C-alpha cells in the first residue's frame, strides 16, 4: 500500500513554481492583482508605428527590465524573446524555491513553446541580406534566428542541462510543450522541468496579422478585444511569456513545497481545417476534450472551470462556445468559462501565461472575468464583469489552433 | 512490460535520392549528392555548393487529387515523403478506422522561408507594401503537419519541433513516447528542411561551411555542407503492426536527450552533453555498449564537432569505441539540419535492414584527434543488431536515438 502511494506520488506531476513577463505584469504579484482585478493591458501600440495599418491596438509588455533578472555576461547576446523567456524562467525557479547545483542541474530541463519565434530578428537579418548583401550579414544575429534560441539562452543563463526542446504548433505551442514536459517527469527523464510559451510583437508580425485580417476591427465596429461577445470583430495581438516549474508530487513533498495544482491529464488531437483558418466544426474540440478527461480520469461534470481559447475571433469563439454547449448540454451544473485574451491580448503561445493564471485560480479559488465581454453569444456560464469565487477541484485549459490542432490540459487540486 | 515501437514505413527525398530504395543503393555505393546549388543565387557567398534535392517536380510525387496551392517547398517535400511512407506501410489510402489514432511529429527548420524570402525581398523593394502576404500562410513549420493531417483527416496529436539540427531526431523520440503512452496508435514522425537563403547566409556568416565539399573527420575538414531533405517514418506499436500484417523494418529501442548549457553555437569541448545523451539513450534501450554495432555520427565536418563527438564516443564506449564503425553520412547527403535526425534515422534503419555500414566519403588525411574507425573506404557488409544515431544542435541540444533490427524476441535478447 505504502509502496503504491510512493509510485503514485512519483507519477503525479505538480506545478510548484510560476513565472511570467506579460502585458499585465512581470512576476506573480503584479500579474495576480491585475488579472483578478479584471484589468486590461490593451492600448495603442507604442513600440512601432501602426499608422499605415487598419489596426492600432495591442497588448505590449511594458513593465519589464531584463537587468533585474539576467546576468550582464549573457544579456548582450539575447534578443527580446530570449530575455522574456530567461526572466520568466528565473521567476518560476525562484517561485519554486529551487537552487541550481552541480548535482541537480543535469536533471533539470526546459520545454518551450513558441508559435512564431523571433520575428524581429529574422526580419532584420533578411533585410540586411537583401539590401546590403551576404557580406554584411552579422554573425552575432545568427543564433537568434533559430527558434530554439530562447530555450538555449535560458538554459545557459540558469544552468539547466537536462532535456531542452522547443516546440511549435501555432496556437497550441505552449500547451504541447507543457504536455510533453509533464510526460518527461512521469518518464523520469528529469526531476524538474520548466515549460511554457513565449511570443513577441514586432512590426512585421503585426503587419502580417493585419494583412491576414485576423485583427480587430476585422469587418466593422470599433477596435477592441471582445471574447465570446456578439459584437466581437477580431483579436488584438499581444506578447509575453509564461513558464511553469513542474516536478513529481514525491519531489515536492520531499522539498516541503506546497504545489499550486496537479497536472492530471491531457488530450491532443487534430481535425481537417484550412491552412491558417480556425476550425469551423466542433468535432476536434469535443474529441480532444474527452481524450483529456479520460486521460485525467474525470467525468465532464467534475470540471468546475474552463479557461477558453476564445480571443474575439468571429469563427473561433462561436465554434468553441458551441462545443461547450454540446459537451455540457445535459449537465445540471455547467463549468464556469473564462478567457484572458481581453486582458493580455492573443499571443498564440499564451498557453504558458494561461497555465500560470489557472494555477493561481486553483490555488486561490478565484476566477478572473472575461474582460471585454458584455453580450455573450450563447447562454453559457461565462464570467462577465468581475471575478468569481469558486472552489475549483478540476479545471480545463483549452488549446485550439488555426490549422486544426487541439491540446487540452486538465489541472486539479 | 514496455511496449515495443516499430517502424513500418519510410519515405524520403534528399540530395542522394528521391525515394527510399534509391537512397539505400546510393548509401551502399558511397555516392555524393553535394554539388552546385541552383535553387537560388549564391553570388557573394563564401560557398556555392550544397546538397540540393535533384529534379523535384511536385506533381511527379503528389497526385492531382491533392491541391498544392500555396504549399511551400517544405510542405511539398514533406507531403511527398509522407505519401511514400504511407504507401510503404500499407496505409495508403489511410483506412478510415485508423485515422482517429494517427498523429504527426515533425522536426522543422526553415519551413516556408524559401518562398517567404522572395516575398520579403519584394516587400522591401516595393514602396506600396502590396506584396503577397498570403505567401506567409506556409512560412511556419507547423504548416507542413497541418496540411498532411487535414488532407487525410488524421485526428491524432500533432506537434512540430524546432530544436534546429536535432529536431528530426527529437520528433522520432517524442512519437515513440506518444505511442507508448497510448496517446496515438500510429505516428508519422520525421523532419523536413528546405534550402533557403537565410540558412545559407547564416552558416556562411558563421564561417562554418566548407566552400568545397564537406570532409567529416578528415584532418583538413573545413566545415559542413548544407543540404535539404524530407524524411518521414511510420511508427506504431508492434502489436498493431503485426495485427495488420505490416512488414517491420526495425525498432526504436532508445531515446536520450540533454542540453550542454554551454554556448549557443559551439559544442562544449568537454563533450559532457553528448556523453550524457548517448548514455541516456543506452539506458533507455536497456542495451549494453557491446550490443551497438554501428554509430551513425552527427559528424558535421566542422573542426570542433568531429573532435568533440569522437571524444564523447570514446568516453561512452571506452575501449569498444575503437571496435565500432562510426560514419558520417552527411558526407553524402549533406547536413539537412531539422531533417537530419530523421534522415539519419532512415539511414540507420536501412543499415540494419540491408546489413551494411554506410561509409564516410571524401576522407583523405587522418586527424590524430579523430582516431576511430570512420569507414572511409566504402560501404561494408555487416550483420547489425543495433545502431546508435547522434544529433547535436545549436543551443546545445543533443538527441541520441538507438534503432534495433526487428526480431520477435527483441534486440536485447538475441
How does the SSE layout of this entry go?
The complex is a heterodimer of chains A (413) and B (414).
Chain A: H1 2-11, E1 13-22, E2 25-26, H2 28-36, E3 42-44, E4 57-59, H3 72-75, H4 80-95, E5 108-113, H5 119-132, H6 149-158, E6 164-168, H7 173-187, E7 192-199, H8 203-211, E8 240-248, H9 249-255, E9 261-270, H10 283-296, E10 305-307, H11 314-327, E11 336-338, H12 341-344, H13 351-364, E12 366-367, E13 388-389, E14 394-401, E15 405-412
Parallel strand pairs in A: 5-6, 5-7, 10-11, 10-14
Antiparallel strand pairs in A: 1-2, 1-8, 1-9, 3-4, 7-8, 9-15, 12-13, 14-15
Chain B: E1 5-14, H1 20-29, E2 35-36, E3 49-50, H2 58-61, H3 73-88, H4 96-99, E4 102-107, H5 113-125, H6 142-152, E5 158-161, H7 167-180, E6 186-193, H8 197-205, E7 229-237, H9 238-243, E8 250-259, H10 272-285, E9 292-296, H11 303-317, E10 326-327, H12 330-333, H13 340-354, E11 356-357, E12 380-381, E13 386-393, E14 397-404
Parallel strand pairs in B: 4-5, 4-6, 9-10, 9-13
Antiparallel strand pairs in B: 1-7, 1-8, 2-3, 6-7, 8-14, 11-12, 13-14
Helix pairs in contact in B: 3-6, 7-13, 10-11
Overview of this protein structure:
The complex is a heterodimer of chains A (413) and B (414). With 413 residues, chain A is of the alpha/beta class. Chain A contains 13 helices and 15 strands. Chain A has two domains: 2-255, Thiolase/Chalcone synthase (Peroxisomal Thiolase, Chain A, domain 1, 3-Layer(aba) Sandwich), CATH 3.40.47; 265-412, Peroxisomal Thiolase, Chain A, domain 1 (3-Layer(aba) Sandwich). Chain A has helices spanning 2-11, 28-36, 72-75, 80-95, 119-132, 149-158, 173-187, 203-211, 249-255, 283-296, 314-327, 341-344, 351-364, and strands at residues 13-22, 25-26, 42-44, 57-59, 108-113, 164-168, 192-199, 240-248, 261-270, 305-307, 336-338, 366-367, 388-389, 394-401, 405-412. Chain B is of the alpha/beta class and 414 residues long. Chain B has two domains: 5-243, Peroxisomal Thiolase, Chain A, domain 1 (3-Layer(aba) Sandwich); 254-406, 3-Layer(aba) Sandwich (Peroxisomal Thiolase, Chain A, domain 1), CATH 3.40.47. Chain B has 13 helices and 14 strands. In chain B, strands 5-4-6-7-1-8-14-13-9-10 form a ten-stranded mixed β-sheet, sandwiched between helices. Chain B has a two-stranded antiparallel ribbon with strand order 2-3. The longest helix of chain B is centred in the N-terminal third of the chain and has 16 residues, at 73-88. Chain B starts with a strand and ends in a 10-residue tail after the last strand. At the A-B interface, α5, α6, β6, α7 and α8 of A face α5, α6, β5, α7 and α8 of B. β6 (164-168) of chain A pairs antiparallel with β5 (158-161) of chain B, so a sheet runs across the interface.
Amino acid at each position: 500500500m505504502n509502496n503504491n502511494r510512493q509510485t503514485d506520488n512519483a507519477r503525479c506531476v505538480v506545478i510548484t513554481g510560476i513565472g511570467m513577463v506579460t502585458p499585465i505584469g512581470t512576476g506573480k504579484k503584479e500579474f495576480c492583482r491585475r488579472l483578478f482585478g479584471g484589468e486590461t493591458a490593451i492600448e495603442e501600440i507604442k513600440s512601432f508605428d501602426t499608422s499605415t495599418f487598419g489596426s492600432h491596438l495591442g497588448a505590449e509588455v511594458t513593465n519589464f527590465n531584463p537587468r533585474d533578472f539576467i546576468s550582464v555576461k549573457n544579456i548582450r547576446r539575447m534578443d527580446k524573446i530570449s530575455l522574456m523567456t530567461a526572466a520568466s524562467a528565473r521567476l518560476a525557479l525562484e517561485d519554486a524555491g529551487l537552487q541550481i547545483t552541480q548535482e541537480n542541474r543535469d536533471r533539470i530541463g526546459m520545454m518551450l513553446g513558441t508559435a512564431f519565434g523571433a520575428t524581429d530578428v529574422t526580419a532584420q537579418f533578411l533585410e540586411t541580406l537583401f539590401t546590403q548583401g551576404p557580406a554584411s550579414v552579422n554573425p552575432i544575429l545568427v543564433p537568434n534566428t533559430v527558434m530554439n534560441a530562447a530555450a538555449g539562452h535560458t538554459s545557459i543563463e540558469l544552468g539547466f542541462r537536462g532535456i531542452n526542446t522547443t516546440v511549435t504548433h501555432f496556437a497550441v505551442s505552449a500547451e504541447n510543450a507543457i504536455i510533453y514536459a509533464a510526460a518527461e517527469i512521469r518518464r523520469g527523464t528529469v526531476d524538474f522541468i520548466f515549460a511554457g510559451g513565449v511570443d513577441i510583437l514586432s512590426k512585421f508580425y503585426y503587419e502580417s496579422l493585419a494583412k491576414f485580417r485576423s485583427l480587430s476591427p476585422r469587418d466593422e465596429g470599433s477596435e477592441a478585444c471582445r471574447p465570446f461577445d456578439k459584437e466581437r470583430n477580431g483579436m488584438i495581438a499581444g506578447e509575453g511569456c509564461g513558464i511553469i516549474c513542474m516536478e513529481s508530487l514525491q519531489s515536492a513533498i520531499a522539498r516541503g513545497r506546497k504545489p499550486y495544482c496537479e497536472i492530471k491529464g491531457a488530450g491532443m488531437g487534430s481535425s481537417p481545417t484550412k491552412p491558417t483558418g480556425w476550425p469551423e466544426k466542433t468535432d476536434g474540440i469535443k474529441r480532444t476534450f474527452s481524450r483529456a478527461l479520460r486521460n485525467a480520469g474525470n467525468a465532464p461534470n467534475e470540471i468546475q472551470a474552463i479557461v477558453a481559447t476564445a480571443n474575439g475571433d468571429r469563427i473561433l469563439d462561436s465554434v468553441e462556445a458551441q462545443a461547450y454547449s454540446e459537451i455540457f448540454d445535459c449537465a445540471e451544473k455547467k463549468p464556469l468559462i473564462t478567457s484572458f485574451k481581453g486582458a493580455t491580448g492573443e499571443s498564440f503561445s499564451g498557453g504558458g501565461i494561461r497555465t500560470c493564471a489557472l494555477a493561481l485560480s486553483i490555488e486561490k479559488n478565484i476566477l478572473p472575468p472575461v474582460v471585454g465581454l458584455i453580450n455573450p453569444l450563447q447562454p453559457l456560464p461565462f464570467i462577465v464583469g468581475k471575478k468569481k469565487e469558486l472552489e475549483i477541484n478540476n479545471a480545463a485549459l483549452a488549446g485550439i489552433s488555426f490549422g486544426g490542432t487541439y491540446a487540452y490540459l486538465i489541472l486539479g487540486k | 512490460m514496455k511496449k515495443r515501437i516499430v517502424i513500418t514505413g519510410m519515405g524520403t527525398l534528399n540530395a542522394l535520392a528521391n525515394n527510399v530504395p534509391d537512397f539505400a543503393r546510393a548509401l551502399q555505393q558511397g555516392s555524393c549528392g553535394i554539388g552546385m546549388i541552383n535553387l537560388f543565387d549564391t553570388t557573394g557567398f563564401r560557398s556555392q555548393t550544397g546538397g540540393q534535392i535533384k529534379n523535384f517536380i511536385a506533381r511527379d510525387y503528389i497526385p492531382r487529387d491533392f491541391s498544392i496551392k500555396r504549399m511551400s517547398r517544405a510542405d511539398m517535400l514533406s507531403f511527398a515523403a509522407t505519401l511514400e511512407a504511407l504507401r510503404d506501410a500499407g496505409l495508403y489510402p489511410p483506412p478510415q478506422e485508423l485515422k482517429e489514432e494517427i498523429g504527426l511529429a515533425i522536426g522543422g527548420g526553415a519551413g516556408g522561408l524559401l518562398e517567404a524570402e522572395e516575398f520579403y525581398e519584394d516587400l522591401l523593394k516595393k514602396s506600396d507594401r502590396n506584396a503577397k502576404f498570403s505567401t506567409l500562410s506556409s512560412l511556419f513549420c507547423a504548416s507542413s503537419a497541418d496540411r498532411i493531417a487535414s488532407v487525410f483527416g488524421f485526428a491524432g496529436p500533432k506537434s512540430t519541433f524546432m530544436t534546429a539540427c536535432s529536431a528530426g531526431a527529437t520528433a522520432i523520440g517524442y512519437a515513440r513516447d506518444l505511442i507508448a503512452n497510448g496517446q496515438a496508435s500510429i505516428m508519422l514522425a520525421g523532419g523536413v528542411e528546405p534550402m533557403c537563403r537565410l540558412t545559407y547566409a547564416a552558416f556562411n556568416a558563421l564561417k562554418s561551411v566548407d566552400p568545397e565539399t564537406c570532409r567529416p573527420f578528415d584532418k583538413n575538414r573545413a566545415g559542413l555542407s548544407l543540404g535539404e531533405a524530407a524524411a518521414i517514418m511510420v511508427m506504431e506499436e508492434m502489436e498493431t503492426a503485426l495485427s495488420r500484417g505490416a512488414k517491420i523494418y526495425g525498432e526504436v529501442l532508445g531515446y536520450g536527450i540533454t542540453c550542454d548549457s554551454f554556448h549557443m553555437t559551439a559544442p562544449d569541448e568537454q563533450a559532457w552533453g553528448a556523453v550524457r545523451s548517448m548514455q541516456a539513450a543506452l539506458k533507455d534501450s536497456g542495451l549494453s555498449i557491446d550490443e551497438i554495432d554501428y554509430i551513425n555520427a552527427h559528424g558535421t565536418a566542422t573542426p570542433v564537432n568531429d573532435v568533440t563527438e569522437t571524444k564523447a564516443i570514446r568516453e561512452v564506449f571506452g575501449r569498444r569505441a575503437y571496435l565500432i564503425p562510426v560514419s558520417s553520412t552527411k558526407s553524402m547527403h549533406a547536413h539537412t539540419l531539422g531533417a537530419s535526425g530523421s534522415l539519419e534515422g532512415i539511414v540507420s534503419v536501412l543499415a540494419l535492414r540491408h546489413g551494411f555500414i554506410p561509409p564516410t566519403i571524401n576522407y583523405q588525411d587522418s586527424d590524430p584527434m579523430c582516431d576511430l574507425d570512420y569507414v572511409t573506404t566504402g560501404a561494408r557488409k555487416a550483420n547489425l543488431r543495433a545502431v546508435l544515431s547522434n544529433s547535436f544542435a545549436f543551443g546545445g541540444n543533443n538527441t541520441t536515438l538507438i534503432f534495433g533490427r526487428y526480431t520477435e524476441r527483441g534486440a536485447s535478447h538475441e
